[in-house]
């Protein structure tokens, strides 16, 4: 595999940004527009380097005709922030536009996948639910699948279990920067459960949801699970196993998800 670190100026964010891309070796790419793509969305407080630094993703995908993309999104919750940058526009418009022009990626829906952890799990399902024709498969690892409940956390112990070392007051200021002091989540494109209900008759991607049994936000995941399991037309699988809100668990989730995908091997 080749690992590329790409620095560029984002016109949407109006600042410099970076992408990590894992690709097959150039000599292994047989034809144009043939590669599959997996977008990996990072968690709160992480950046585009963490998937490479904390998991074995490069080893997991080395035999596949696949590009893995990880970009920077700060603590935006993949939203156009009230006090910050338009990361939702960057995610859904500029990033795939750039990636499709940098790499020989297939334009077929069945060749496009997304996954994320924690904040990124929210982002992956948000992207897939708002743009259901974009991906064939989406996965959340310990995802913040109820943003309203998440921003209402007031327990320092829960925040520490989520690897958030902020005070409750600083955590509340983060919520304000994303959605505003009186921001509304219900009924917006940040309300994943409502989006799931609204798209009940749509041709949605396959959804894979993972959460550890000792995760502080397990209850948020079960709320999404309850809704998804009441939609028999949805191709949905839920995996709950021993684990915390940490990279040990997410590394296992990533391998399982990759093994579930219809990936093409390098010829």
TrEMBL record:
InterPro entries: AB_hydrolase_fold, Esterase-like, Mycobacterial_A85_antigen. It comes from the Bacteria. This is Protein SipE. It comes from Ligilactobacillus acidipiscis DSM 15836.
């Amino acid at each position: 595999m080749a690992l590329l670190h790409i620095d560029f100026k984002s016109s949407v964010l109006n600042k410099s940004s970076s992408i990590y891309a894992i690709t097959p070796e150039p000599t292994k790419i047989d034809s144009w527009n043939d590669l599959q793509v997996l977008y990996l969305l990072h968690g709160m407080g992480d950046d585009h380097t963490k998937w490479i630094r904390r998991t074995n993703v490069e080893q997991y995908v080395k035999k596949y005709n696949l590009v893995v993309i990880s970009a920077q999104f700060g603590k935006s919750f993949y939203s156009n922030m009230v006090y910050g940058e338009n990361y939702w526009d960057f995610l859904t418009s500029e990033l795939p536009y750039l990636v499709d022009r940098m790499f020989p990626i297939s334009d077929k829906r069945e060749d496009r996948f997304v996954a994320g952890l924690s904040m990124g799990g929210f982002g992956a399902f948000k992207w897939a639910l708002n743009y259901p024709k974009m991906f064939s498969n989406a996965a959340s690892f310990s995802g913040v699948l109820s943003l309203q409940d998440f921003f209402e956390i007031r327990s320092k112990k829960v925040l520490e279990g989520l690897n958030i070392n902020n005070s409750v007051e600083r955590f509340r200021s983060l919520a304000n920067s994303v959605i505003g002091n009186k921001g509304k989540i219900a009924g917006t494109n940040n309300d994943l459960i409502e989006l799931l209900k609204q798209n009940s008759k749509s041709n949605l991607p396959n959804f894979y949801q993972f959460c550890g049994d000792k995760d502080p936000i397990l209850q948020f995941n079960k709320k999404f699970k309850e809704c998804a399991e009441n939609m028999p037309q949805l191709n949905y699988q839920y995996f709950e196993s021993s684990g915390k809100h940490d990279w040990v668990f997410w590394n296992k989730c990533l391998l399982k998800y990759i093994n579930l995908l219809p990936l093409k091997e390098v010829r």
